[in-house]
Amino acid sequence: MNLRTPLSALFPGTSGRLLTALVDHHTSDADRPLSLDELSKSASVTSTQLEAALFRLGLLGLVAPRRKGDAVRLVPGHVAWGALRQLADLRGAVVDLARRQARAHLRTAPTYLALTGAVVEGTATHPADVLELIVVTPPSAPADWHDHLAALVAELSQDLGNVVVHRTAQDVEEAQAWGGPAAVRVPLS
Question: Does domain 91-185 sit in CATH 3.30.70?
Fold first, then answer.
């Protein structure tokens, strides 16, 4: 999955670039009108392409009715903006997914679980970009605990559309050193 520009990945071409620019604007200053020049530049879309795409967004109610050439005014309270903003930043969803699936697969919670790599950083642009799980096996782990960990890795790989790998540290100190300051700790309790 392309997590750097997910809207462009899901909606290729003009639509995705325009939605990305509009979601960024909605996040920063939804009430301020956008000139066509400003929007064209931020979306990397020609004015001809822009007008056609804006017409479609107007039909959906995401932008206020306008005449050709007029500034673009968002409809800030439209129900779709929340969903589009979530799609634009999937980092939190990745952490939540890892937490839910770890709870489901690892009946005995690991002593430590953290996520690193381009997927959790939100910089992944290709399916080969990695999400790495750094784990410390709990002292009371059942004999098949590592089989469940492997099942977790496989399911996360499938659900994310990216490569997921894991490393097992001997203790929390080693795990924290491996993950560094960018690691996202995932508490399961």
Answer: yes
